[in-house]
């Protein structure tokens, strides 16, 4: 074995001992680096004759190539080993069943609200949203329910900061405040457009008010059919010639469409609300299915009281209309045969996912 052969052997040996790429680069420097063995030999060739240079140079080159080949092979081996370790660490079992992507969905009451909006939308009703924290004025007084009115006691609610001591702000007990809020805006816009003075009751031309206002409402109440937070949807139609007959037609049409039942029967049972006169509670009766034959209350309604028409900024001699307030939670219960309202608000996905 020549000196060069043993040099290549030695290089191969020290490369084999290198366990990391850094070790390997250090070992490489001993042979191929600036002052490595091969480099030294090449420098030493300066003293040789031309003939000797030829043969010795060729032999050194062969050795150099051998060392480089050994280096490349070891580099590759180290890289392969590292990859193998990494793959092992990150290994996953491709035979495991996949984790399904669960898809969320709308809450059953939201589905009902969407349907309500769609049905009334098709009858030309706008959809309005209003604040859940209300003033005493909008929730009661403007709706013909002054401070000492006994009807207030049926609307016990949660009082919050703001307003006056005698009339603090509150969580709205119904969506009826939206009757006033929406109408006042509507009247303001159209009397300005008509060039009428902004004060006093308006008796000019005006497009009809036709709006529904769905949203959350609050009362101090909790049992199987009452929750402290519940939903209502207000409806209001005011014009020059809107009568109780229109209320009956519109609400009957809505119920039959909503429940997809053409033979559904409605009953307008006389009732009292301070903000409507006359007033009626609306009951429905299914002719078929598990609830057939029972009267089920779904809304309060009536012809808008003249004092309320005034608080909208309108002249009650000219404008007349109807309002209703229904319970989307109750409609949802009837729709799906759910018997406890609180289930809707417990947030149990096992219950809620049944409605998708
Ligand atoms: N706001 C009434 C309630 O919550 C319902 C209602 C609305 C009645 C509109 C008449 C007209 O009980």
Task: Please give a structural write-up.
This protein has helices at residues 3-17, 21-32, 37-44, 50-89, 108-122, 136-139, 177-193, 244-258, 306-311, 328-336, 349-352; strands at residues 126-127, 133-134, 159-163, 168-171, 209-218, 229-239, 265-273, 276-285, 296-304, 320-326. With 356 residues, the chain is an alpha+beta fold. A hairpin with a 2-residue loop joins β7 (265-273) and β8. α2 packs antiparallel against α4 (50-89). The longest helix has 40 residues, at 50-89.
Global shape: elongated
Structural class: alpha+beta
Q: Give the radius of gyration.
A: 43 Å
Beta-strand proportion: 15-25%
Residue share in helix: 40-55%
Count of DSSP strands:
10
In short:
The protein has 356 residues and is α+β, with helices and mostly antiparallel strands. Helices cover 41% and strands 19% of the residues.
List keywords for this structure.
19% strand; single chain; alpha+beta; 356 residues; binds phenylalanine; three-stranded antiparallel β-sheet
Describe the secondary-structure layout.
Layout: H1 3-17, H2 21-32, H3 37-44, H4 50-89, H5 108-122, E1 126-127, E2 133-134, H6 136-139, E3 159-163, E4 168-171, H7 177-193, E5 209-218, E6 229-239, H8 244-258, E7 265-273, E8 276-285, E9 296-304, H9 306-311, E10 320-326, H10 328-336, H11 349-352
Parallel strand pairs: 1-5
Antiparallel strand pairs: 2-4, 3-4, 5-6, 6-10, 7-8, 8-9, 9-10
Helix pairs in contact: 1-2, 1-4, 2-4, 5-10
Bound molecules: phenylalanine.
């Amino acid at each position: 074995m020549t000196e060069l052969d043993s040099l290549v052997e030695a290089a191969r040996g020290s490369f084999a001992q290198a366990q990391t790429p850094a070790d390997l680069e250090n070992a490489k420097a001993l042979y191929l680096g600036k002052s490595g063995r091969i480099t030294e030999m090449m420098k030493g060739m300066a003293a040789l004759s031309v003939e000797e240079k030829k043969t010795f140079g060729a032999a050194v080159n062969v050795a150099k190539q051998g060392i480089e080949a050994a280096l490349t092979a070891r580099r590759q081996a180290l890289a392969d080993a590292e990859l193998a370790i990494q793959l092992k660490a990150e290994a996953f079992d491709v035979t495991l069943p996949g984790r399904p992507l669960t898809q969320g969905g709308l809450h059953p009451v939201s589905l009902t609200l969407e349907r309500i909006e769609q049905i009334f939308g098709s009858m030309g009703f706008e959809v309005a949203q209003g604040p859940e924290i209300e003033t005493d004025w909008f929730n009661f007084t403007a709706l013909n329910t002054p401070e000492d009115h006994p009807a207030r006691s049926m609307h016990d609610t949660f009082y919050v900061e703001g307003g006056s001591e005698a009339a603090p702000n509150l969580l709205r007990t119904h969506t009826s405040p939206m009757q006033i809020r929406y109408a006042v805006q509507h009247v303001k816009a159209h009397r300005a457009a008509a060039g009428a003075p902004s004060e006093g009751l308006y008796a000019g031309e005006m497009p009809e008010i036709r709006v529904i206002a769905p949203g959350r409402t609050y009362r101090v109440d909790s049992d199987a059919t009452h929750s402290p937070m519940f939903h209502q949807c207000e409806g209001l139609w005011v014009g020059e010639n809107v009568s109780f007959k229109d209320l009956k037609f519109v609400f009957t049409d809505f119920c039959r469409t909503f429940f997809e039942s053409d033979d559904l029967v409605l009953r307008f049972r006389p009732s009292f609300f301070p903000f409507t006169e006359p007033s009626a509670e609306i009951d429905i009766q299914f002719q078929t299915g598990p609830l057939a034959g029972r009267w089920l209350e779904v809304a309060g309604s009536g012809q808008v009281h003249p004092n309320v028409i005034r608080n909208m900024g309108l002249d009650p001699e000219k404008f007349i209309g109807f309002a209703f307030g229904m319970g989307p939670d109750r409609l949802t219960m009837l729709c799906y045969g759910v018997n406890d309202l609180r289930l809707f608000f417990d947030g149990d996905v096992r219950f809620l996912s049944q409605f998708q």
